[in-house]
């Protein structure tokens, strides 16, 4: 009897220790994703690179995440989620060391891509580990587990700003090393291996075409600023753009021919999903682009310190978390469309505030206002947009959710690549960055128009 009483608390304790280990891994990934945005100017100055190529340290990380998501789940099924989790943490830690030791922009971009691959692999296997550990309580555990991302959005910019205040940008990566070592030790001791199942077929060809499309498109955009380099500048842009067009054409043909493609053609255009996908590209360009570019903008236009510019993203994250809770409570009563429209309108206003000069106040307070309004809009729009897409095809909710992430990250890649390329080529980078936020506001306005055509749904679905 004593053994039974003692065993139950021990099982519960280990379960929550496993949960804490997984959440810590996701926090490491989330914090690294947001903290690097505060270091763009420092990396640019230290490595002597243009902003266009330095911006790749953000976009290539997103590319890595996009490409590994379809692979991580099947890998966990075949080799076990515990093994893949430990491998991903180890790879992330090693890639962090290599990022910190990089002597040039090209090296840093390659190692950030590896870091993105490792970080993207964590999410599917971490979800599988939590699900297996908590059994019938998996829904609540996964909901609680998802809070790692907004917490990372709060801590990341502050961590980046603090590190840059007292050290260099390299320490943003080196700080992952002790965390990674601790996670490997805890994971080996605490996490049990999940049951292995027959893995789903992986569309390697689709991933290869998607990789070619994303990388060649990014090269074409980045090289826009090289038109003054004689014939080689325009030739490189045209060549990369041609590769992107060919890759896009073959990717579409591949998706229609492959029995289990990386993206179902039906989910690209059917049942108003095409409308949602376009809206998600515009949403990602405006919202994720805002997050990636704001600290650098605050530093070059208003000479704000790294910790103050990073704090702007923390303001955004706090308001986003607070409004998300309100939005979840209102979804069944109002439906997703009113909340989505209100949130996207607030995001448009936020981008306008950020791009316009301060009115009767200092730049810190003015940009904080813009960040707060952005958080307000994201808090309303994020839960409602998730429901809007999944409501269209409820039987494929997981696939639609993954597609939403893909298209938003694609929009962010386009926005960050274009803005950094134009800013790098401009004679007045601050003015170019200012204009970029106003253009992003117009882009978000277009997304609001598209969102008006999405059918509303109240109550359960």
Provide structural commentary.
InterPro entries: MFS, MFS_dom, MFS_trans_sf, Tet-R_TetA/multi-R_MdtG-like. The chain crosses the membrane at residues 12-31, 51-72, 84-103, 109-130, 142-166, 172-191, 203-225, 231-252, 273-293, 313-331, 338-359, 365-384, 405-426, 432-452. It is a multi-pass membrane protein. The radius of gyration is 22 Å and the shape is globular. It contains 19 helices and no strands. It has 461 residues and is an all-alpha fold. α1 packs antiparallel against α6, α5 (81-101) runs antiparallel to α10 and α14 packs antiparallel against α19 (429-451). The model is unreliable at 1-10 (pLDDT under 50). It has 3 domains: 1-202, MFS general substrate transporter like domains (Growth Hormone, Chain: A), CATH 1.20.1250.20; 204-261; 265-461, Growth Hormone, Chain: A. The longest helix has 34 residues, at 2-35.
Keywords:
mainly alpha; Growth Hormone, Chain: A; 461 residues; EmrB/QacA subfamily drug resistance transporter; MFS_dom; 19 helices; transport; transmembrane helix; single chain
């Amino acid at each position: 009897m004593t053994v039974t009483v003692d065993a139950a608390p021990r099982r519960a304790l280990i379960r929550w220790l496993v949960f804490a280990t997984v959440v810590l891994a996701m926090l490491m990934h989330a914090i690294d994703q947001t903290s690097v945005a505060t270091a763009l100017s420092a990396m640019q100055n230290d490595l002597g690179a243009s902003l266009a190529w330095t911006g790749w340290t953000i976009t290539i990380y997103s590319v890595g995440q996009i490409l590994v998501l379809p692979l991580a789940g099947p890998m966990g099924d075949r080799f076990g989620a515990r093994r893949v989790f430990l491998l991903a943490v180890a790879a992330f830690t090693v890639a962090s060391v290599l990022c910190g030791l990089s002597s040039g922009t090209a090296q840093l971009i390659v190692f950030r891509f590896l870091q993105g691959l490792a970080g993207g692999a964590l999410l599917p296997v971490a979800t599988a580990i939590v699900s297996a550990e908590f059994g019938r309580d998996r829904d609540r555990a996964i909901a609680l587990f998802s809070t790692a991302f907004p917490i990372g959005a709060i801590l990341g910019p502050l961590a980046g700003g603090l590190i840059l205040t007292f050290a260099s940008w390299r320490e943003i990566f080196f700080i992952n090393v002790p965390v990674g070592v601790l996670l490997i030790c805890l994971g080996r001791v605490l996490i049990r291996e999940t049951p292995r199942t027959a893995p789903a077929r992986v569309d390697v060809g689709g991933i290869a075409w998607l990789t070619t499309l994303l990388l060649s498109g990014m090269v074409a955009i980045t090289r826009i600023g090289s038109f003054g380099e004689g014939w080689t500048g325009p030739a490189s842009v045209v060549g990369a753009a041609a590769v992107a067009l060919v890759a896009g054409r073959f990717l579409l043909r591949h998706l229609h021919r492959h029995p289990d493609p990386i993206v179902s053609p039906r989910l690209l255009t059917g049942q108003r999903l095409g409308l949602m996908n376009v809206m998600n590209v515009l949403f990602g360009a405006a919202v994720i682009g805002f997050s990636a570019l704001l600290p650098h903008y605050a530093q070059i236009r208003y000479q704000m310190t790294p910790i103050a510019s990073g704090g702007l993203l923390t303001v955004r994250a706090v308001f986003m978390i607070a409004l998300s809770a309100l939005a979840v409570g209102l979804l069944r009563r109002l439906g997703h469309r009113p909340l989505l429209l209100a949130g996207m309108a607030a995001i448009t206003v936020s981008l306008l505030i950020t791009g316009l000069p301060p009115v009767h106040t200092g730049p810190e307070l003015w940009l904080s206002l813009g960040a707060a309004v952005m958080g307000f809009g994201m808090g309303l729009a994020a839960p409602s947009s998730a429901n809007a897409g999944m409501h269209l095809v409820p039987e494929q909710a997981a696939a639609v959710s993954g597609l939403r992430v893909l298209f938003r990250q694609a929009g962010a890649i386009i926005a960050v690549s274009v803005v950094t390329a134009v800013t790098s080529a401009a004679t007045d980078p601050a003015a170019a960055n200012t204009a970029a936020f106003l253009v992003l506001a117009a882009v978000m306005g277009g997304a609001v128009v598209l969102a008006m055509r999405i059918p509303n749904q109240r109550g359960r679905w």
